[in-house]
Amino acid sequence: VAFFPLQMGDHVFVGERAVVNAAVVGSYVYIGKNAVI
């Protein structure tokens, strides 16, 4: 099992069944349903 850094800004919404791995997500972001990042 490997772990990768994840940084999320303020007011971020992650939808149902979304997968977010090893990313930098800014502020005021909407990640939709079933998204893979």
UniProtKB/TrEMBL annotation:
Record's protein name: Dynactin subunit 5
Principal localisation: cytoplasm
Species whose genome carries this gene: Bracon brevicornis
Cited Gene3D superfamilies: Hexapeptide repeat proteins
Pfam annotation, one family: DCTN5
Keywords noted in UniProt: Cytoplasm, Cytoskeleton
CC annotations in GO: dynactin complex
PANTHER family (UniProt xref): DYNACTIN SUBUNIT 5
Similarity comment: family membership: Belongs to the dynactin subunits 5/6 family. Dynactin subunit 5 subfamily.
Location(s), subcellular: Cytoplasm, Cytoskeleton
